[in-house]
Amino acid sequence: MSGIFFKTISIKRISLLMLAGGLLLCSQAFALTLNEAKQQGRVGETLSGYLAPLKQDADSLALANRINDARKQQYQQVAQENNVSTDDVAKLAGQKLVARAGKGEFVRGINGQWLQK
Length: 117
Known about the structure:
4 helices, YdbL, signal, YdbL family protein
């Protein structure tokens, strides 16, 4: 029984590493635009695991949609591999993304308010 538990933990760790790598690749595909948008306060990270636009202009909305679509695909893949819900994977990633947000970037707190790190 304990062998199964450790295999499950290892699979989850591997999947989380894959998710983190995928998120980095998603971010790198749009790295300059995403970084610029974050630094300009146009988009911010949320605990849901998805970007949210702070500014409602077309560029910010389009960027958030592109990044969120790519993230959703990654979350779905990890969720399927680990027999967990996509929402659970997204929330775990969201916690990590909010915690890792850089100085000056905006994150939405548990109270729904935007905070600048």
